[in-house]
Design a protein that fits this description.
The complex is a heterotrimer of chains A (about 300), B (about 230) and C (about 120). With about 300 residues, chain A is of the alpha/beta class. Chain A is built from 10 helices and 13 strands. Chain A has 2 domains: about 210 residues, 3-Layer(aba) Sandwich (Rossmann fold); about 80 residues, no CATH class. In chain A, the strands form 3 sheets. In chain A, strands 5-6-7-3-8-9 form a 6-stranded mixed sheet, sandwiched between helices. A 4-stranded antiparallel sheet of chain A has the order 11-12-10-13. Chain A is globular. By secondary structure, chain C is mainly alpha-helical. Chain C has a two-stranded antiparallel ribbon. Classes of the chains: A alpha/beta (about 300), B mainly alpha (about 230), C mainly alpha (about 120). Chains A and C meet through helix 9 and strand 11 of A and helix 1 and helix 2 of C.
């Protein structure tokens, strides 16, 4: 069941095209990863999904309707951004209180528990909160809102490693008990790789990958070992990426070679991080190659 | 309607600050005036003397507050899944409620002022001659009118900043200034100052301080609505 | 790199594997500590530990001004060493696992013959 769908969505700011003919679906009750480099267009897409920005062209449907200025749809959507600014007069607890008034599924007890665990000082002005505490507010709101569509746009960057782990743990636990559609947008792919069920990768405003995590992982392996043994293993398969050091090599191999000798080899499932990074690099070099092929490009 | 009330409650979530701050400014200025007058009691009240300026303090403070409603509360609300329409409706509700509340507060303070003969030292902050009207309801409205005007003007200035940034505000200010200067030049050239003067003197207070401001406030409210439709956080 | 054994030990084993496999031939230049550190994303000191152990074992030697080289005869030396350890590394666990699966040494021998015939 598709709960969010984009069709041919483009967003232009003057001369810049931030999002270019993007189409994808988000499935109900799944955790999606919206991955890509800084400036790839992730935040722009999320802002359009939540009615904060209008696409230049294309169609967006959230729970079946256009989200722009649509209160019925938007109250089911909770969008937590990285650098959320709060009104100067707000104390931390006002941020939580206002969230409570907006989101129909708000769980106050859960919020209280999270405030404790993240050590959020409720009576401090939002202006005076540290970066980590600000992120904590965002994360708490996102979790306790229990909104059917919850979007996190890198809100956990300010959190320290312990707090981030708390966030991931709570997200998974609460998601199991109260399923909802979650989107995690990040460039810290490794940390969330195991949680993500569906992967959408954006590069330069375009979708370059859109598949379930399982499918993607089954499409490549990383194998390392003595050069000769590794090359034997990878024979007949495309090598997406290669690193060498005197007699030892690490290859990212497309497809999973079967029934081959693996002694003295280390074969690992490809990490999502590697897959995303290498795919982006491939598209970079393809573009460069295209430019060179055209001769002089000044 | 329920939703809008919720949004209004969010704007007032730190009510102490939102409602209290302009009042605090007012009382502070009043206290300052009383202290000043203690040094020289019962002077001749002049037109346009400091007490008038003192009253303006709460009006200006409220206007600034509502500029911030758009520059701070609005982006926050957008980020919290609130639609622009709901937000503006709630802001309008808050502005009207606040204007009436302050209108009542000022009327009450006026009564106390006349009763205590200028707070015991002859300060005439609220009891200004041109503000006097016959019935209490009208009194409240006469105080409230300029609040409505300035608040909606503040909202509009705030959203202009949100949508077009500092440049937009500059252009707006310069245009307004040009308009005023142009009007003043026109009046001066045609020697219409006497007419302008009598306009202010002869128009009945309720019309001058309530009806016209409300009309202008509605214009600002409409401008705010149209400017906000495409504004982003 | 896995988390179960010391990193420098893994470096040692990887280079030894490359020597045995022929990917790193004798009298060719072995990777420097910088190259190893970059490839495995580890600390240079750790890489240096691995290299030093290999030098101490006589498998690598230093050519002044050029770098580390694989000693002549290193491969044979390694193969012999591993053969010596073969029993402990492979046969003992093999028999232990066989025992768990209620197979005796004869069963295992038969199995080995079968596999070898299928090769």
């Amino acid at each position: 069941m598709s709960v969010v769908s984009l069709r041919g969505v483009t967003k232009r700011y003057g001369d810049t095209t931030a999002v270019d003919d993007v189409s994808f679906d988000l499935h109900e009750n799944r955790i999606h990863g919206l991955l890509g480099r800084n400036g790839a267009g992730k935040s722009t897409v999320m802002r359009m999904l939540t009615g904060q920005d209008l696409p230049t062209s294309g169609q967006i449907r959230v729970v079946g309707e256009n989200p722009f200025e649509n209160a019925g749809v938007l109250r089911q959507v909770c969008f937590i951004k990285e650098a959320q600014k709060y009104p100067d007069i707000f104390l931390a607890r006002h941020a939580l209180k206002s969230a409570e008034m907006i989101f129909p599924n708000w769980d106050a007890e859960f919020a209280e528990q999270l405030v404790d665990e993240f050590r959020l000082p409720l009576k401090t002005r939002t202006k005076k909160l540290s970066r980590g505490q600000l992120s904590a507010v965002g994360v708490i709101v996102g979790l306790a809102s229990r909104a059917p569509v919850t979007l996190f746009d890198e809100p956990y960057l300010g959190l320290d490693a312990v707090a981030r782990q708390l966030f991931y743990d709570h997200l998974l636990a609460d998601y199991a008990e109260h399923p909802r559609t979650v989107v995690l947008s990040t460039h810290l792919i490794d940390e969330v790789a195991d949680m993500i069920e569906h992967v959408v990768v954006i590069d330069r405003g375009r979708i370059v990958m859109n598949d379930s995590a399982d499918n993607l992982r089954s499409q490549a392996v990383t194998v390392s070992g003595p050069t000769k043994a590794v090359e034997r293993f990878a024979a007949g398969h495309t090598v997406l990426h290669r690193e060498d050091v005197g007699g030892y090599a690490r290859l990212l191999v497309s497809g999973i070679p079967e029934g081959r000798d693996t002694t003295s080899l280390q074969v690992e499932p490809v990490s999502l991080q590697q897959l995303v990074v290498r795919t982006a690099q491939l598209s970079d070099s393809a573009l460069a190659g295209a430019a060179n092929g055209k001769g002089e490009l000044s | 309607m329920n939703r809008i009330i919720h949004v209004a409650r969010i704007q007032l979530v730190n009510a102490k600050m939102v409602i209290g701050f302009p009042l605090f400014i007012l009382l502070f200025v009043l206290a300052a005036n009383i202290v000043l007058f203690l040094a020289a009691p019962f002077p001749e009240p002049e037109q346009g003397s400091s007490p008038t300026g003192a009253l303006m303090s709460i009006y200006i403070a409220t206007m600034i507050l509502h500029v911030q409603t758009m520059t701070q509360m609005f982006p926050y609300a957008l980020g919290m899944s609130i639609t622009r329409r709901d937000f503006l409706a709630a802001a309008g509700l808050v502005v009207v409620g606040q204007a009436l509340l302050y209108g009542v507060a000022l009327s009450v303070l006026r009564l106390i002022e006349t009763a205590t003969n200028g707070w015991g030292v002859g300060v005439a902050m609220f009891d200004l001659p041109f503000l006097e009207v016959s019935n209490p309801v009208m009194q409240v409205l006469v105080y409230a009118g300029p609040f409505l005007l300035l608040s909606f003007a503040g909202l509009w200035a705030g959203v202009v900043y949100q949508r077009w940034g500092q440049l937009g505000v500059w252009i707006l200010s310069l245009s307004l200034a040009a308009l005023l200067i142009g009007a003043a030049a026109l009046v001066g050239w045609r020697n219409w100052w006497p007419q302008v003067g009598s306009f202010f003197a002869d128009t009945p207070t309720p019309v001058l301080l309530f009806v016209y401001p409300v009309v202008l406030a509605a214009v600002f409210a409409g401008s705010t609505y149209f400017t906000t439709r495409r504004a982003t956080a | 790199m896995d988390d179960t054994r010391p990193l420098f030990q893994q470096i040692v084993e990887q280079i030894e594997d490359s020597i045995i496999d022929g990917s790193l031939p004798e009298e060719t230049r072995a990777p420097s500590t910088n190259e190893l550190a970059a490839f495995h994303r580890i600390n240079q000191a750790t890489a240096a530990n691995g290299i030093n152990k290999l030098v101490a074992d006589g498998l690598l030697y230093k050519k002044r001004g050029v770098g580390m080289f694989v000693t002549a005869g290193a491969r044979d030396k390694l193969v012999q060493r591993r053969r010596d350890a073969f029993g402990e590394s492979y046969i003992a666990p093999l028999l232990a696992e066989a025992k768990r699966l209620e197979m005796d040494a004869d069963d295992v021998k038969k199995m080995i013959d079968n596999w070898r015939d299928e090769e």
